[in-house]
């Protein structure tokens, strides 16, 4: 714990150094003698830092009060750095677009994945705030917003322009709901920006080619961890990020289920993956190697982190599959296409793919109604893939 005496007696050194006060706060003493209060914290899986000002302008007591306030924000799921930026924007205009956008972001970002929130904030800070951030939100009309969006379009980032428009619309609607704007002008811009070209993840859907892919995976000469991930991917067809960050604590051996918590799902809802006999065999093979750690598929450098985003993709490339033939996401398209062709209930397929369900009541109903069918479907799918791997020439029927 610091005291005013210990701070005053501390002398500058050739390099900056820290005087720690505890609970994440420290005083950074620079070679020029300046003393800056800093607070380290972690939110959304990321380490961040915020400044509380300069000593002695900000006293030890005041710095501790700021630290306690920041810790309370963290308990409430609020990022102190974003709250500080929102307050700064508010000081320059209570109803400015940036003020309300940051308020909207602070309110809803705790329900998003960290990477999703980061992309939205960067988009707003880079492409929107510099142009209309300080403008009163109620005064921003469609032509002015279109000018901003066309700057994005003109650099060739058409998809980003559409996403920025969507985010602006969310901010405007939030402002309307909180009584600080009359309407959302983004609706008037429909058709003003060229449509984006639909992107599809490359996938193999021909049964004979699927059989060849599965045999190539079994013959993969890379490490056992990546090979097990490759073998499991077509059986469970989750998103690549959900697969690579799978944790042993999520495997329910008694129920033959993999329960992925909401915070790791794109749609922020808990997801259950019924595990086929073939999936359980892969997990039992992998368990002696990584079962003592956190992750099913840890990084080769440290067991404290999962394997990289590119691990499965790189393995597919080593096996000779190009980006136009197959991707990590391609296992999802493969399952979706063939399961639909095989006549499984569409809702059961969509629920197992963990796609968005707009109607919450319908989502809850489907969750309960289709779980037995999903279990049958996942085992049937695993059996079907086994047949393709053995013969490579089966039809979808």
Describe the structure.
- Residues 200-383 form the Tyr recombinase domain.
- GO terms for molecular function: DNA binding.
- It is a single chain.
- The chain is an alpha+beta fold.
- The protein folds into two domains: 4-140, Integrase, DNA-binding domain (Double Stranded RNA Binding Domain), CATH 3.30.160.390; 207-391, Intergrase catalytic core (hpI Integrase, Chain A).
- It contains 16 helices and seven strands.
- It has a four-stranded antiparallel beta sheet, with helices on one face.
- The protein is globular.
- 30% of the residues are buried.
TL;DR?
The chain is of the alpha+beta class.
Low-confidence stretches: 360-368, 393-397
Number of helices: 16
Helix content: 40-55%
**Rg:** 26 Å
CA-based shape: globular
- Give the class-level CATH name of the largest domain: Mainly Alpha
Protein name: Integrase
Domain Tyr recombinase: 200-383
Pfam families: Arm-DNA-bind_3, Phage_int_M, Phage_integrase
GO molecular function: DNA binding
